[in-house]
Amino acid sequence: MKPSSSLSNDQKLKICHHKAANPSIKQSALANWAMQEFKLSKVPTQGTISNILAKRQQYESMDSPELTSKRQRAVKHPELDNVLANWVLQCQARRVALSGDLIKEKARQFARQLELGERTPEFSNGWLAKFNIRHGFKAQKSYGESGSADLDAIDRNMPTIKEKLQSYSLQDIYNMDETGLFYRMAPDRTIARRQIEDGSHKMEPLIIGHAQRPRAFNRKSGEQLGFYYRSNAKAWMTGLIFREWLQKMDQQMQDANRKVLLLLDNAPSQVVRDLPLTNVQVFLFPANTTSKIQPMDAGIIATFKRRYRRFQLQDAIDRDEQKKADIYKVDQLIAMKWAKAAWNDISSKTIANCFKHTGLFERETQKNEVGTEEQDIENELKDAINQLPISRPMSVHELINPEEEQQVAHEEISDEDLIKLSSSQDQEEEEDGEVMDENPPMSTKEKLNVLHSCISFLDLSNPNHVIAHKVLRNIQFEIRTIEKKQTTLDRYFCKEY
């Protein structure tokens, strides 16, 4: 039999089961096992294995004809499926009692709102069973009444929370939260991410935008551009997106053979019930306590936004000097690059300090070092605001903590918005996705000449200039190395034999 390079759905399910039976197996070893087991012509890539493992529940919900196929049968009504799943997750977050009949009735209501007409499926028990399996929902039952907590809940629950944390080493405690970011907001009143406890490991930030492929992406996907990116019409975190993120984190911890604790608030989108997690244990903070004891709210988000706004205001000053009409104009891709750079720039000391500032941990902190670093950035922001042509300038606090960004991040989603969130996102973003004016590409010689001019300007008696000198020389070296490799490659292909 001739070796095949593609996998059937049944084979993909067997890969998932082999992983479950051997939790410590690495994805590279799993790929080699699959090639030998299924006599493939080549080893599946790490990305292929990762995608297969993430879709285990989908393969387990398939019937025999689907399993023998090498293509996954598409859900007949993806928008209905998406909006209904997000509605169920939101109900779970609110601890609303759900029955199968209630879900079917809600599905009929959404079908009418989506105007499916004759395409409306029969919402049978079989349909409900497949829907539940597809999304990992167990049999619906009553959750009881939703509880609420006042600020006294912090004192009441602190001993329990600390006891839970003590069963994990510091490097195995993470926190995840979401925040809005108005990436083009001017610092003018007239106009106007997850982390490990000891700070030694930052997870990749998940960015959610309005369009699947904004114009600035130049027809590429977020993944091709190096981002963990998802989209919907409102640019909101949904239950389905959160569950995907959490399953990805669990898979990463399986691959690293680590058991970790994830601290979460009670946001409507953060529903973990029924998720088959093996290496991530989730601990939910009591209601109305997270602003006081959640590490992300204790300074990590503000630290990230200081760094993002520094990028933004520095760019605005450049554009003002160039006499640009809209000095705050920036496309989504550039804003995402700033956001990723801002996140990566946060030091492990800063993260550890924010965790310990919550009172959940008893260890000493380096408050002075961290405080000085953040104060320096605040001073830079103040100076930048003063340099901009603003009639009523914001304070740095207003710029870093606009109330509207938190409202965007934690709003409960109405049925109408659920419909919008589930609409197709294949189209590019229009006016709001405006692409920045780009200078024509520079040749290697032009790049090196610009760097040489900058280096000639530096005064090496100034410590800051010494640092800049080292950085610019490193950039020069990188450009020359790339050019040398490209020249060698061109010569190889142009050789005459």
Concise summary:
It contains 20 helices and six strands. With 497 residues, the protein is mainly alpha-helical.
How much of the polypeptide forms β-strand, as a percent range? Answer: under 5%
Q: Helical residue percent?
A: 40-55%
Report Rg.
Answer: 26 Å
What is the number of helical segments per DSSP (H or I, 4+ residues)? Answer: 20
Structural class: mainly alpha
Characterise the protein shown here:
It is a single chain. The chain has 497 residues and is mostly helical. It has helices at 9-21, 27-37, 46-54, 56-60, 64-68, 78-93, 100-113, 125-135, 152-166, 239-255, 290-293, 300-321, 332-344, 348-357, 367-387, 396-400, 403-410, 415-421, 444-457, 463-494, and strands at residues 173-175, 195-196, 206-209, 228-231, 260-264, 280-284. The strands form 2 sheets. Strands 2-1-5-6 form a 4-stranded mixed beta sheet, with helices on one face. The longest helix has 32 residues, at 463-494. The radius of gyration is 26 Å and the shape is globular. Residues 141-151 and 364-368 have low confidence and may be disordered.
How do the strands and helices of this protein lay out in sequence?
Elements: H1 9-21, H2 27-37, H3 46-54, H4 56-60, H5 64-68, H6 78-93, H7 100-113, H8 125-135, H9 152-166, E1 173-175, E2 195-196, E3 206-209, E4 228-231, H10 239-255, E5 260-264, E6 280-284, H11 290-293, H12 300-321, H13 332-344, H14 348-357, H15 367-387, H16 396-400, H17 403-410, H18 415-421, H19 444-457, H20 463-494
Parallel strand pairs: 1-5, 3-4, 5-6
Antiparallel strand pairs: 1-2
Helix pairs in contact: 6-7, 6-18, 12-13, 12-15, 19-20
